[in-house]
């Protein structure tokens, strides 16, 4: 198919989809409307279970089963990436040369690292109280670790990042989530039902039943998944080279 | 104002699709897909917004004192963002494999290689 | 007031999405994508979704551009190695 014909086809298809989308937009409930029946019920359910952050209650209590699917997707995707990015037979590892880092960059990165790491852990721990949770805090904590690559060099990062440990943490966190769900079954209720633990005092760290535990499991999963993912890409970008003449 | 957020979401989606179709570099294609994904976040959150409402977090808010926006679409968007990031990572890993095996990232050249 | 802020944030999102698609050089596109991530995070905060804004800030403006940059670097290194072998 010629370039021109392809562009015409795209224009016609795009115009059709655009017309349908605009028609759909005009029929949607108006932006900022007052009717949110499901939202109101979700808020009531979250308050009944003493979870201050409704989003955490939705993710780890009311839709906990969906989150299990989501972290399975994350787990499988990271596994797939690591398989695709592994060192192939016709490749070898070149030791990266230590590079000179500008002093302001080094100073800033080494000051920001502990602050960012602590922020990430705080966001994970307070997921059921304030905005944040395992997903956000996990990504923040994991990317914070990579400030070391900016501030020092790749070998320093490799030293503080034992990949085997993160492999195990990733798998353990996913199984911890599933085991917490099964514990609900053993206690005589449904899979992942939040009836196992007392709901605790509203607006304290231990409130919300199993929500903080599931949140922590997800935080651990996301943090180790992101570290592994970035390690795979960094290995490709910095270390792994193709054999000459292959 | 009543439909503007929805129209912006539709516009962002179509822009991303245009980029997907006309891209000359597979890494750029993955970036365009990320643009497409962001349109879904805008649409979902626009559906859940409520005039004069606040965030559904009750750590510093007496329950019932103010209306809150719809938390369900926010939870859906959160899922959407995480899954979107994993899709991007997986696609980039595939792109690196293609670059390694075929030595090019131009979709047209790749099509010719396949014969 | 809140309405005006929302409109401005929406227009910024549309503009930066256009720029992200129009920038054909992947390494520069990664930078534009991270701007898009920040603008989206602002929009979500204005739409009273701080959880989602935080998530978008972490993923959209840090993780995704970082992955794209690393991929670009790998591809460039490969091309350079091939030139040297020739």
From TrEMBL, chain A:
It comes from the Bacteria. GO terms for cellular component: plasma membrane. Residues 106-227 form the Na+/H+ antiporter MnhB subunit-related protein domain. Its main location: membrane. The keyword Transmembrane helix applies. It is found in: Cell membrane. The chain crosses the membrane at residues 67-85, 105-125, 131-150, 171-193, 213-234. Keywords: Cell membrane, Membrane, Transmembrane, Transmembrane helix. It is a multi-pass membrane protein. Belongs to the CPA3 antiporters (TC 2.A.63) subunit B family. PANTHER family: NA(+)/H(+) ANTIPORTER SUBUNIT B (PTHR33932), NA(+)_H(+) ANTIPORTER SUBUNIT B (PTHR33932:SF4). This is Sodium:proton antiporter.
UniProtKB/TrEMBL annotation, chain B:
It is a multi-pass membrane protein. The keyword Membrane applies. Pfam families: Oxidored_q2 (PF00420). The chain crosses the membrane at residues 6-23, 30-49, 72-96. Keywords: Cell membrane, Membrane, Transmembrane, Transmembrane helix. It is found in: Cell membrane. One of its GO terms (cellular component) is plasma membrane. Its main location: membrane. The keyword Membrane applies. Belongs to the CPA3 antiporters (TC 2.A.63) subunit C family. This is Dehydrogenase. It comes from Streptomyces diastatochromogenes.
TrEMBL record, chain C:
GO terms for cellular component: plasma membrane. Keywords: Cell membrane, Membrane, Signal, Transmembrane, Transmembrane helix. The chain crosses the membrane at residues 29-47, 54-72. It comes from the Bacteria. It is found in: Cell membrane. Residues 1-19 form the signal peptide. This is MrpA C-terminal/MbhD domain-containing protein.
């Amino acid at each position: 198919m010629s370039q021109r014909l392809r562009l015409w086809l795209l224009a016609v298809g795009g115009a059709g989809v655009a017309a349908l989308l605009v028609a759909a937009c005009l029929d949607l409930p108006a932006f900022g409307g007052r009717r949110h029946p499901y939202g109101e019920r979700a808020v009531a359910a979250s308050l009944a279970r003493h979870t201050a952050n409704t989003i955490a209650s939705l993710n780890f209590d009311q839709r906990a089963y969906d989150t299990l699917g989501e972290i399975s997707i994350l787990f499988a995707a990271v596994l797939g990436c690591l398989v695709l990015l592994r060192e192939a037979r016709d490749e070898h590892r070149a030791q990266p040369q230590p590079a000179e880092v500008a002093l302001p960059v080094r100073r800033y990165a080494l000051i920001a690292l502990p602050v960012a790491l602590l922020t990430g852990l705080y966001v994970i721990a307070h997921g059921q109280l304030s905005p944040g949770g395992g997903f956000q805090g996990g990504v923040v904590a994991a990317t914070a670790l990579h400030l070391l690559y900016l501030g020092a060099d790749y070998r320093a990062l490799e030293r503080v990042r034992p990949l085997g440990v993160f492999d195990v943490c990733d798998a353990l966190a996913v199984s911890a989530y599933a085991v917490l769900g099964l514990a609900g079954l053993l206690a005589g209720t449904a899979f992942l039902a939040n009836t196992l633990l007392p709901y605790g005092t509203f607006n304290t760290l231990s409130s919300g039943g199993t929500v903080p535990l599931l949140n922590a499991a997800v935080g651990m999963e996301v943090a180790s998944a992101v570290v592994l993912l970035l390690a795979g890409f960094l290995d490709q970008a910095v270390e792994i080279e193709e054999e000459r003449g292959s | 104002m009543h439909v503007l957020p929805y129209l912006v979401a539709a516009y962002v989606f179509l822009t991303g699709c245009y980029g997907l179709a006309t891209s000359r570099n597979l890494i750029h294609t993955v970036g365009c897909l990320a643009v497409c994904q962001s349109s879904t976040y805008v649409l979902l959150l626009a559906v859940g917004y409520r005039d004069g409402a606040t965030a559904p977090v009750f750590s510093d808010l007496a329950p019932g004192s103010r209306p809150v926006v719809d938390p369900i679409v926010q939870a859906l968007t959160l899922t959407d963002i995480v899954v979107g990031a994993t899709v991007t990572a997986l696609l980039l890993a595939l792109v690196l494999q293609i670059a390694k095996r075929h030595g090019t990232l131009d979709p047209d050249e790749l099509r010719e290689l396949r014969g | 007031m809140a309405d005006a802020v929302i409109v401005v944030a929406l227009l910024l999102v549309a503009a930066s999405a256009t720029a992200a698609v129009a920038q054909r050089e992947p390494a520069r596109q990664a930078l534009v994508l991270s701007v898009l991530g920040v603008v989206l995070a602002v929009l979500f905060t204005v739409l009273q979704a701080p959880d989602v804004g935080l998530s978008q800030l972490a993923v959209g403006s840090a993780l995704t551009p970082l992955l794209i940059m690393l991929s670009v670097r790998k591809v460039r290194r490969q091309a350079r190695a091939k030139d040297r072998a020739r």
